Structures
1.
Amino acid sequence: QMDAKHLTFADNTFDTVIDTFGLCSVDDPVRVLNEMQRVCKKEGGKVLLLEHGRGHYKWLNKYIDNKAPQHAHKWGCWWNRDIDAIVKEAGLDVVKKERRMFGTTYYYVAQPSGREGLKMNT
């Protein structure tokens, strides 16, 4: 068992790194994505994400925003996160993105960023 913000794998270890419905339950999802990029091979590597978060509709976002604290307390999941903003801030190079279920379900195929300095100081 290890912390997703401090993976004990060497840089450029994996061909593909996958996260499914996990960014909602960590305190620093951008750092988690940066760690995923670090351990993914820079040449030909893929980062696959299946996540949930804010939807396409204001009425739906209003509802999930209103219920988010109770939902997080009960389930440990912040279901109203802006996944697009998190992915953008992490600097992933997005190859493909799809949204389903009123826009609340996100599927990304991405590559590690070409940016230098992704390795986190520990």
Note: The chain has three helices and four strands.
2.
Amino acid sequence: MPILKIQMSVPLEAAQVGALQREASAAVAKVLAKPEGYVCVTVECGKAILFGGTDDPAAFGELYSIGGINSKNNNAIAAAVTEMLKKYANIDGKRFYLSFFDLPATNIAMNGNTFA
């Protein structure tokens, strides 16, 4: 059930968004050792983001997961997503924050039931 949410200031074409989502989904599934069928990736483009006092291209993201949130995995995912944002949106890694949230299974549901 990992959920990766990314908001960026850069507008992207639908094909670029789809490619970014597919690449991010595969990376999250691999690093967290979760079935990709449970991974959700959202990308919102063209958002007004002020980062470091400027409106230069920037982004922020949030990753939610039941387990798998730890220093090793967080660093691997941060590196992968940072590279993707550079590749697809030319966003410098110094203008991207990614926060990680380890959720208890009782606090996330799918198909009408929690994962607990």
Note: The first helix runs from residue 14 to 32.
3.
Amino acid sequence: GTYLDRHLVFPLLEFLQEKELYKADDILQGKLALLYPTNMVDFAMDIYKKLHNTDEVPEEMVSRRQAAVQRLESLTEETAPIREVLDDAALVQRLRDEKCFTMSHLTEQRGVPAGALGSLYEWARFQYECGNYEGAAECLHHFRLLTTNPEQAFLAQWGKFGAEVLNRRWDVALEDMNKLKETIESRVGSTPPLMVLQQRSWLMHWALYVFFNHPEGRAAMVDLCFQDRYLNALQTNCPHLLRYLVVAVTLSKRKQAVLRELTRLIAQEDTNFTDPTTRFLKALVEDTDFDGALRELADCEAVMASDYFLVQLKDEFMHSAKLLVFESYCRIHRRIDIESVARMLSMSVEDAERWVVNLVRDAHLDARIDSQANHVVIAPVVPSVYQKVIEKTKGLQFRSLVLSNAIEQRAAEAAAKAAASALQPAAAAAEGAK
């Protein structure tokens, strides 16, 4: 939970409680500690009563509830003028179309107090702490459009992303995640490097909710985590994310392009993090140990069943992992005994034969079934010359573009220096004339 907001941890505790992986009282104690600093005081009171089997709650909780109610009343009054404007969706859209959706315009033309924007931010934070994530997301969206303070806009962006995740609006959350990534990278020059590293680590953790709930999430995780800056953050701060990256790559349509790189990364981080998913891939790709890979794969099923993010993808992952094992097996064998496949995948011979037939059809493998010998016969794969040329040159355009941009930048810098040098004598002469 180091890189997660406390509100994002709550679904994880709910999952653990549902799975009965820990003692019920321990989960309740964790929920109570999680809720204590928030404004969800009524919910915390209910958990306290259940945990201690009592109808009484500490006086401190009662006082905190009264303070929260008073704060709500105060913020409601302070933000009433600006919320009245924001609640009129047609008016907001018209002002945005006219480029008039600014605080100066709202103050001059709509009578909104100048300090109302700061109160709106506090209102959004209060709603978030109360568990009203939909209301918080809406307020933070408007706040970001109105504020001219980049720091507050950045904080509001984090809050909006977290609120959309908790609202389970995955399309919007994916869009917010990409915008937040762009903002983090745009602030690199003005933010200390260590803080940028932390922000990238936070983003990867918060984004897990999107990666494993959005239909395009696994591909988005592969794209993000294999960027050098985020790969560095993963290795430095959070090698435990390798479990999720292995699953994302295994389920990705482009897994062959990154499989070797991921295996190399797993080997590098072996002393920092290892679990059945990473050991499965290492045994399969680096060691070519099919028996070892299948033993680890059996353990992967149990690990995924107890993981909040991966449990719903367990069956899909197991199917894709077995497919990966079979494809790897086919690369080094030309004739495969179906009985051996059945033993390898813990299936009956009939099920294994059906599985192989479906696999050959779905994966477009150049193979046939020899029914008499009960073998799968794999045709040798000879890559075409055209394919080799494509593989060798597929990055050429991008590298040429990068090189061209670098040359243009160097030329611009040289021209700027030359212009500055030319101006120095003129400036010195003007100074002497004075």
Note: The two ends are 66 Å apart (CA to CA).
4.
Amino acid sequence: MFLGLRCVRPAILLLLLLDGLPGGNNGFFNTDCPAVQITIYAQMIWSMMFNAFLFAFFFTFLAKCENRSIQVVFADKLCINVKNFSSGRVIHDEHQHRLSESEDDDEVFQNSGVCVNVRCYDIDSAFPVVETHARIYMMDKDMKLHVVRIQKPNDDLGAMLYPSLPAEIVHHIDHHSPLSPPHYYDNMPFVNRSHGLVLRASDSSTGNRQEIVCPVCGETYGTYGRFRRHVRYARIVERQEEYPKENTHLGLEVPDRIPTITLDEVRQYMSHTMAEIIVVVEGIDPQVSGTFQALQSYKYDDICWNGEFEPCVKVKNNKFTVCMEAFHRVREPANENVLSSSSESSSLLDCQEDIEKASLPHLETTLRSSS
């Protein structure tokens, strides 16, 4: 046993010698030199750490994952319009949106609303970005950053995108949105307070949570339509049982009209409070597994009110074509004219080239600048 302990140090030096470190054959097998043994061991550790650092440094320098952000492009304009959630179409006649105020159903929260629309696209689909997801922030004029919930793609599911085709990011401006006038949130009757959380009205209308609280019995409901039906049924029961009006549903006053956020009111509010809207698209470079972010900022002058993006994807002979000129164009609501940014109004791209791939994962876009 003691013989084995006395052979430990020479055995370590022998292993270091086999690893090719200097000093192994210069008389350092003397067991009375622990300082030399520690020095050689530290030299081996330092050599491995330094080589690993150099390898990681050159690998990071060659990878440059942050440079992949230039392949994710955003539309020059941000559209704010009234959209039908069921069909996804833009409602240019806002009177149709206001009709839902007096209807006794769930259309106020489910069928239409004022929405923010952003378009993005990964132009290099030969090396597509993977695990892409989006976020939106609003910076007010006091330099405070506010989180903006995303309706499409659903941020409850990570707001995942497929940017190999032009994708739209949609935010519904409801009474919880930082883009809506604060008096809407204060004047919504029977709505439970958010207590500082960033919520969405669509979560309540779809049953994920229930934000409308009955002040009489404490029952919660997702929409005013369901709440009205509850009150009507409770009144029938209480009237049959001859309940007093005080502190019962018989004496509860339910407003017939629920305030609806309009496009003009959102425009006036944002003109006084908004500094910019920041859109973040984050993805992973599949070649080096590095994460990067593509950012786009929109100011008030970059907003197209009640406009919608021009379709930019066409199918011809079983081939997909993405026109980058149409990608930036916006349809004007009044006369259906097409608005484009000044940078492309002269002639940016030709848009006559088809994509020579038939499958979506290998979609390619060819850009050709005019001479």
Note: The first helix runs from residue 2 to 6.
